[in-house]
Design a protein that fits this description.
alpha/beta, D-Maltodextrin-Binding Protein, domain 2, six-stranded mixed β-sheet, five-stranded mixed β-sheet, 32% helix
Amino acid sequence: MRITTRKRRAAGAILASSALVVLAACGGSDSGSSGKAVDKLGKTEGKVSILAWPGYVEDGSNDPKVDWVSAFEDKTKCQVTSKTYGTSDEAFNLAKTGDYDVVVASGDLTARMVASKEAAEVNTDLIPNYAKVYDFLKDQDWNTFDGKHYGVPHGYGANLLMYNEDEVSPAPTSWSAVFDPAEMAKYKGKITSYDSPIYIADAALYLMKHQPDLKIENPYALDEKQFNAAVDLLKGQRKNVGEYWSDYLKEISAFETGDSVLGTTWQVIVNSVEKAKVKAILPEEGATGWSDTWMISSKAKHPNCAYKWLDYIESPKANAQATEYFGEAPNSAEACDFASDPSFCDTYKAGDKDFASKLWYWRTPVAECLDGRKDVKCMDYSEWTKAWTEIKG
């Protein structure tokens, strides 16, 4: 697996106040985009501008052997320009400029795009390859709002628990390894955690199973009491954490040097550690994860080429190239047939509904509780961001 330069970091800075007002008011779920879904496509415009995570739009300029953009350009005559971003906040601010026709967004960004009217409703009937996508990735809360599609699935992955088999014993089966005080103390200074406010959801997921009296039903829907419990858990963890990571190349290095022996990870990192004997598990509590969505800007200047891109990147061959290059499960069973590594889909649990059902995909925390509660206010992402600063100290 080739390592890309993607720094898959969730939002780390305080959101713009205007965006927070929108999210607080509508909960990220009942505000439609000003861009309406089209009934039919027109003539392609000859170009399309894409905003994406590194490794999602490769044209051979980073590696001559890695190129799925050129085939798209040859087929559609839509010339691609692209820009990469490092955090969901950065993507949100760039999307608001109106300079991009297409934006690929993680679940901690999609609701913001819809609530702020930056995303257009998408007519999936105009995207033939959408029919091939796994059903469990469709019509989900991070890509469908008020019954309207605002994008199409790219790939998905889990935030796993990785450990050095020579240093960690007994082998962990639970997130207790990094959250229980007695367990953490054994590896003080060598635990690593994901560097993002969204990591608060990992603590909340742990508390769902270990402190049922808190009555947490969704790790992204936390009232003040639940939120404070998760924050306190992470503050207790802080003294045992040697490093917070967001660039996965740094986590690979930390495990190879021995600076880290236990912590949250992605499968692509597990595959890439060479100088240490590591293993990753999906703990008994389940895990958080991501499912990215290709969205069309409500300000798209080249909407017809944008639709062509969405259909192309949904195609099994292109999707296999992109997801295998980055290191995540593809969006369809047919994509597995185009993987260069015969074990690719098995490694990433592609199509494994049982595995996918144990993942809580990233969402944007908003004041209107995502678990359906109406009698309380949940802590929105601005509160998560402020708390994260306090947690890290």
